[in-house]
């Protein structure tokens, strides 16, 4: 049986390579009828331009064309919008995911910097004991990266590296993207059918 209960999910998209992961995840959440609070860093916008070839001169148009058209329950917040509901622990949601997560954002979260809305929302998520999922896309990793990931997991966060599996015999780029997005949705506890599971 499919769980169709609407969830409230905060999503951060940063400047790490792999912007398509974040885009596709938001689209899947909206298509499934979930409510999404979206935050995109300045570097994230730049990666939209570089990797997806989007014209980012009109950000409202980007949000409308690539996100809002998939569902009505989307709330986009700028990095300085500390009045956003997700900036406060009193606003109850079902989890937060940063996909892809840059090493700079990882560092800010691991050290409780709260220097912008994305970091603040992640900090609030951790302190309230809610699900925080980080999807790093960086290689190779040095000790500081690894230590920051450990810090986040020690306080309840989860690390879901953007590492596609190949046992489902992917034949397209979408297959690889869907695997990572699907594993991310799994970590949030949200049902999906983006890839064939082992044994199915």
Structural account:
With 200 residues, the chain is α/β, with parallel strands linked by helices. It has a single domain, classed as Flavin prenyltransferase-like (Rossmann fold), CATH 3.40.50.1950. It is 40% helix and 14% strand. The protein is built from 7 helices and 6 strands. It has a 6-stranded parallel β-sheet with strand order 3-2-1-4-5-6, sandwiched between helices. Strand 1 (8-13), helix 1 and strand 2 (35-40) form a beta-alpha-beta unit. It starts with 7 loop residues before the first strand and ends in a 12-residue tail after the last helix.
Assembly form of the protein: single chain
Roughly what percent helix?
Answer: 25-40%
CATH architecture: 3-Layer(aba) Sandwich
Structural class: alpha/beta
Looking at CATH, which topology would you report?
Rossmann fold
Mean pLDDT, to the nearest integer, reads 96
Strand and helix order: EHEHHEEHHEHEH
Number of domains: 1
Q: Total number of β-strand segments?
A: 6
Radius of gyration using CA atoms only: 16 Å
- What's the arrangement of strands in the largest beta sheet? 3-2-1-4-5-6
Q: What is the overall shape?
A: globular
User: How many helix segments?
Assistant: 7
Please outline the major beta sheet: 6 strands, parallel
Question: Regarding CATH, which class?
Answer: Alpha Beta
């Amino acid at each position: 049986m499919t769980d169709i209960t609407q969830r409230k999910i905060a999503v951060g998209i940063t400047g790490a390579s792999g912007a398509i992961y974040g885009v596709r995840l938001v689209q899947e959440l909206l298509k499934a009828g979930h409510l999404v609070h979206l935050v995109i860093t300045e570097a994230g916008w730049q990666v939209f331009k570089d990797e997806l070839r989007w014209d980012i001169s009109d950000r409202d148009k980007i949000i409308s064309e690539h996100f809002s058209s998939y569902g009505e329950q989307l709330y986009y917040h700028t990095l300085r919008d500390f009045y956003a509901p997700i900036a406060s622990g009193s606003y109850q949601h079902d989890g937060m995911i940063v996909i892809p997560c840059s090493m700079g954002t990882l560092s800010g979260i691991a050290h409780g910097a709260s220097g912008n809305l994305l970091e603040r929302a992640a900090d609030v998520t951790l302190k309230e004991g809610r699900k925080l999922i980080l999807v790093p896309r960086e290689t190779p990793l040095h000790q500081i990266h690894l230590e920051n990931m450990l810090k986040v997991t020690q306080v309840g966060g989860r690390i879901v590296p953007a590492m596609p599996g190949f046992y489902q015999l992917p034949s397209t780029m979408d297959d690889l993207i869907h695997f990572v997005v699907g594993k991310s949705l799994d970590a949030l506890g949200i049902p999906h059918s983006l890839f064939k599971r082992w044994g199915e």
